[in-house]
Amino acid sequence: MNAKLIDALGHRYYKLSLWIIAGITLLMLLLLGGSPYWSNSTLNAILISVAFSFLTSIAYGEAWKAIAKKSPGKLTAFYLAAPALRMVAAVLLIIVYYLVNRTTTALDGTPAIRGMMITFIFIFAIYYIALFVLDCVYFAKVEKRNKLQ
Fold this sequence. Notes:
This protein is mainly alpha-helical. Helices cover 83% and strands 0% of the residues. It contains four helices and no strands.
């Protein structure tokens, strides 16, 4: 692949991931906005999930472009290592979220961390799985197309 094609594929990946993140966010805000499940912790979960998804998509795309330009033979190792690194980052983010919010209480004084964690993990998992599927499908098509040429 030439550098122009790699840059175009990377730009398309950014655009698709941004559209997916924006679409999920809009859907979450529309579905949860007026429901009894809406709270500040729900909004925080959405914002943290958006930030994580956006930053990891940028990192993934930039790393893919760099490896595809410099050593395309190492892309197979990249396709194995990058999702593992994203998963480790996701687990660390969930642990940090728990540690920051573990002393949060509800209005009646009872601990509220269980409900907050369930909400956070559910919302975070939707973003995570959507971008994981995008990575798998998009780059499988890119690799298949380049093998055929």
